[in-house]
Amino acid sequence: MFPEIPPLSPRAWRFFALLFPVAVAVAFVVVLFLTLPQELFLILDGLIVAYLLPPAGKESVIPVGIALGIPWWCMALAIVAVDLIAALFMALNFDLLYRLPWLGRRLSDLTKKTRQLLLSRRWLASLWFFAIVLMVMVPVLGSGGVRGSIAGRLLGLPTLLTILAIAAGSLIGCFGIALGSDMALSWLCTNGTLPPEVVGAVCGSVP
C-alpha cells in the first residue's frame, strides 16, 4: 500500500495556489524568449498584456500580431496559453481575487456582465459545458480564460470541466481568427490592396 499523503494546510494550499500559476506563466515566457527573435518576443509580450487588459480581445491582438510578423500558429498558441494560464489562476484563487482593491472591482463588474449575459440567453445556461466553449470561442473583450472561469463558477461547473471547456473554446476561436487573418493578409498583400506606406512593414513578413 502507498503511504497516505497528508492534506495541505490552508496556508500551504494558498501558497501553492498563488505560486503554481505564476510558475507556469514564467515558464511560458521563458519558452517564448528562447524560441522567438527578440523583436518578435517584445511585440508578443506587449500584445499579451493588451489582451489581458480590456478593451483588447483576441479578435484584435491576433491579427495585429500576424501583421507585425509573428507566425499565425504561434500567435494562436500564445493566446490559447494565456487563456489557460488565466483560467488556472482564476480556478485556484477565485475567492481571493475579489478581495483585491482594483482587480476585485473589475472582476465584480465582469461577473455582473457575465451573469446578465447568461440570464438574457437562458439557452446558454442549459448547455453548460458548450456555453463556456461558445463564450470563449466568440471574440469578446478581454481574456476568454477569465470570462470562462466566471461563467463556469456561475453555472456550477466543476473546475476541470471549466478548464477543458476554456481550452476547447480558445483553440477553436484563436486558430480560426489566426488562420483567417493570415489568409486575409496574404490576399491583401498579393493584390496590392494595402496603402503603399504600410506594405513594406506588413507584407514583408507574409510569405
Write a concise keyword list for the protein shown above.
207 residues, mainly alpha, disordered N terminus, single chain
How would you describe the overall organization of this protein?
- The chain is an all-alpha fold and 207 residues long.
- It has one domain (10-205).
- Helices cover 79% and strands 0% of the residues.
- The chain contains ten helices and no strands.
- The protein has helices spanning 10-35, 38-52, 58-67, 72-97, 101-120, 122-127, 129-137, 144-155, 159-190, 196-202.
- The longest helix has 32 residues, at 159-190.
- The protein is globular, with a radius of gyration of 19 Å.
Number of strands: 0
Tally of individual domains: 1
SS summary, helix count: 10
Order of helices and strands: HHHHHHHHHH
Radius of gyration: 19 Å
Strand content: under 5%
Low-confidence stretches: 1-6
Percent in helix: over 70%
Query: What is the approximate shape?
Result: globular
The pLDDT mean sits at 80
What can be said about the biggest beta sheet?
Answer: none
